[in-house]
Structures are given as structure tokens and as C-alpha cells.
Amino acid sequence: MKTNQHSKIVPNTIVKMIAVMTALIVSSEAVWANAFRFPNQDPEAIARGDAFTATADDPAAIYYNPAGITQLPGIQTSAGVYIASEDTHYTSTSGSPVAGTARTDTSLQPVPQFYLTYSPTNLPLSFGLGVYAPFGLSINYGNNAPFNGAAEQGSLLYATINPVVAWKVSKTLSVAIGPAISFSQLNAQLALPTPPFPPGYRFNYNGEGWDAGYTAGLLWQPAPQWSFGIDYHSSTEVGYRGKTEQNTGFPGLPSSVPANVTIPFPENVTGGISFRPTPNWNFEFDLDWTKWSEVRSATFSASPLPGPAPTLTLNLQNSFIYEFGVTRQLCHGYYASVGYEYAENSVPDQSFNPLIPDSDLSLGGIGVGHHGQHWDWAAAFQFAYGARTVSGDTTYPTANGHYSTFNKGLNVSVDYKF
Q1: Is 33 left (phi over 0), alpha (psi -120 to 50) or beta?
Q2: Is residue 162 a contact partner of residue 131, using CB atoms and an 8 Å limit?
Q3: Other beta carbons within 10 Å of 414
Q4: Measuring CA to CA, how many Å separate 295 from each of 99, 169, 212?
Q5: What is the pTM of this model?
Q6: Which stretches in the chain have pLDDT values below 70?
Q7: What is the C-alpha to C-alpha distance for residues 304 and 291, in angstroms, rounded to an integer?
């Protein structure tokens, strides 16, 4: 009789854990803009608060606005790395069901970028190839967080290969389009509940998958002082294939179970206006919108667990990022930039998970660089600050409390013009 009770409890518990894991996987990110997007793909742009869509005059235009590569003669390459540190602190508040504090691991996380462009002299076409990570990074609260039954740690790698072709329709207008092929790996961990499990039991998921979408852009420069840009990234939906792993030794609990999960990644569109009163100054404002309402739920299935595949409701909400930047050209090819971004919160209280400590964020950037005959270099520092108090979380009640985030990042790149 006791064995039958264990057999009944364990599958039900695993099904519940599967539903929780779906949220953890989607939540694995470093919160550098909103929800789990990572829009920081080039130091020249980052220093300007990512306000680069209407400028797009270096190889990273492949990400920010691929129509901009028609401004780049010959063959040009760019290689860079963004080094980030995620720092979120949790404190329980009055009315929180659990008491205590938690803080994420602030270890440095490198994110590489690579771009290549080619503009033939005898054609109105330009070609480009970008490799970048528009979503991802990781977050880790350790094993003793007050809410460890909902979240402990998670990581998400989402790498995109993006070939593009741009057409210079006229002297003032360029358009571009290209496929975006993405590979993703994910991992997440949480504690199994006590009871029925003994203290120290952990539940992990590992999986990987592919999907494809596309990017497009438009750049219009009606006058030397004015430039307008639009950039679009389509939505994708990655079907991960992997397995769960958990501590063995509990009656009826398998140590590993094949498992699949489908996660949507949202589309986003950015529009920008650049004003250059003189050749030495560039002011730009961009409005970046992400359709997070596409991420309503995620479905996870595992075998041989009984019952239908559980579905977790996420109910993320659409949000804007407001971006402003200034660049000043100095002497001998040097320049300096400064920028500011305001990113709206995309995660409602009702479905807040500590692995998405999203809030209304203020992001600042500053950077310097140099343009040479063949070699260019750029460096930028960025920070992000936000805070919120969660009090109405019905999906993860133990996550109610106060969260403050202060992230730091350094991006450097080197470009070569053949």
C-alpha cells in the first residue's frame, strides 16, 4: 500500500515540476533590456543607448538595421565581445510567504559578436553575415534562496546566424532582408518540494533546438542632416528536445526522463530618427517595441509520465524601450558617445518568476572609439538599474518580495576594412 502511494505521489509531483520548469527555462536571462531579450550587440551602439537604427554605419548594422550596410564600401569585418555581470538582490517583505534574502551570482558572462559585409563596386547590392545572441545569458541564486522551489538557476543560449542582402534603391533609400537561423540550448534547476522529497533534492532540465525566422530593414536619408530607419526581427518558436535529471533514491522517481518543451520568442520592431546638425554631431532617438504577448504559455511533455502535457501560462505583456544617444566626432578619427535607455517592465506580478527579475529599467552607456584607414576599434561601458516589489504573484507565491537589479557590462570590438 505504501509503495502504491509513493507511485501516485511521485508522478503527480513530477508533472507539477515540469510545469514549473517550463517557466524557469523561458526565464533564463540577464535582464539587460526587458524580459529575456539581449539587444546589446555592438559597442558603438551601446554607448549611444542602442539608438543606432537610423545611423547603422558599421558592420553591426546587420543586427540594428541591415539596410545600413549599403553605406559600407568594400569588405568590412567586426569582431567583439560583451562581458556582463548580472546582480539582482531579493529581500522578503511584509506579507511574503517566505522570509530571507537572496542574491544572484555576479560572475562575468562573455557574449561574442561577429559581422561581415561586402559591397561590390558595380552593383547596387550589399551582402552581410552576422552571428550574435539576441536572447540569453544566465542567472543563478544558488541552492538556498527562499523561493528555491520556484527558481534556483537557469541558463539560455540563443545564437543566431543572419545572412542579409541590402539593395540601394536610390541615393537616399536602402532596403534589406535576410533569414535568421537560430540554435538554442537551455538548462534550468530548482529544488523538489519538502515533503514529499527529502531536503536537498534537485530537478534539472537540459535540451536544445533550432528554428528560423527573418530580419528586415529600411534606411531613408532625405538630407545630409536627417536619417530615418526601421528594423524588424520576426518571431520564432524553438522546440527543445532534451531530458530531465533528478536525484535518485526516492521510490518511484526515475533518474532521467526524455522531455520536450516548445518556447516562443517574440518579434520586435525598432524605428529611429537621426539628426546631424554638423558632421561632428549625431543625435538619435529610437523606439523599440517587442510583442511579448506572443509568449502566453509554454507546453512541456515528458515520457513515460502519465496524463496530458502540462501547459504553463506566462502572460507576458508588450513593452517599449526608449533609446537616446549622442556621438561627438573628435580629432584624428577619435569619437565619444553617451546614451540612455528606459525599458518598460514586461512581466506582470501575477506570473513573476525570480529568474525573470524584470522591472522598469534605466540603462546608461558611455564609450569611445577610433576610425582608421583599415582598423577601427570601440569600447563601451553600460549599466542597468531597476527595482520592484512583487505582492500579487499567484503563479509563484514564494517569489513575492522586493527585487533590485544593478547590472554592469563592457563591450569591445575591433573592425577591419579590406
Answers
A1: alpha
A2: yes
A3: 12
A4: 31, 36, 17
A5: 0.89
A6: 1-33, 192-198, 247-253, 300, 303-313
A7: 35
